[in-house]
């Protein structure tokens, strides 16, 4: 039997949640709303994350544009996604919400700009 203690991020309460795993059986306690149980199960079975970073901009009013994954990605893919982000350069102008990398690291998830950058 394995026991994991988590802090739920499903809502602003931040409940301490305990997940007990015994083979295929998963028991979640401590959550005060249904989102807590959903979050805990997902976190122990297939954890995912939103990645935020920045990409270099050629010819822009600032040198980098902030970016994020459009949706969460498998936690195991974070380093591959970051390597692709680090190796990417884009030309100004950049619009907020613009897709800068499609299907990043074969995750099926796009990298989008979270702000705009004007051309010099």
Short précis:
The chain is α+β, with helices and mostly antiparallel strands and 120 residues long. It is 18% helix and 37% strand.
Describe the structure.
It is a single chain. The protein has 120 residues and is of the alpha+beta class. It is 18% helix and 37% strand. The strands form three sheets. It has a five-stranded mixed β-sheet. It has a three-stranded antiparallel β-sheet with strand order 1-2-3, covered by helices on one side. A two-stranded antiparallel ribbon has the order 4-7. The protein is elongated and about 60 Å long.
Radius of gyration: 19 Å
- Helix fraction? 10-25%
Average pLDDT reading: 96
Uncertain residue segments: none
**Topology as a string of helices (H) and strands (E):** EEEHEEEEHEEE
Described by the principal axes of the CA atoms, the overall outline is elongated
Biggest β-sheet strands, sense, barrel: 5 strands, mixed
Number of H- or I-type helical stretches: 2
Strand segment count: 10
Instruction: Going across the biggest sheet, name each strand in turn.
Output: 8-5-6-10-9
Structural class: alpha+beta
SS strand fraction: 35-45%
Instruction: Please give the alpha-carbon distance between the first and last residues.
Output: 60 Å
């Amino acid at each position: 039997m394995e026991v994991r203690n988590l802090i739920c991020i499903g809502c602003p309460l931040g409940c301490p949640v305990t997940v007990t795993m015994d083979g295929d059986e998963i028991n979640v306690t401590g959550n005060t709303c249904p989102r807590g149980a959903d979050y805990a199960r997902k976190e122990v079975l297939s954890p995912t994350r939103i990645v935020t970073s920045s990409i270099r901009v050629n010819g822009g009013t600032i040198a980098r544009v902030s970016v994020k994954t459009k949706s969460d990605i498998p936690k195991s893919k974070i380093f591959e996604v970051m390597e692709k982000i680090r190796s990417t350069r884009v030309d100004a102008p950049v619009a907020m919400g613009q897709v800068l990398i499609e299907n990043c690291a074969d995750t099926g998830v796009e990298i989008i700009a979270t702000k705009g950058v004007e051309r010099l």
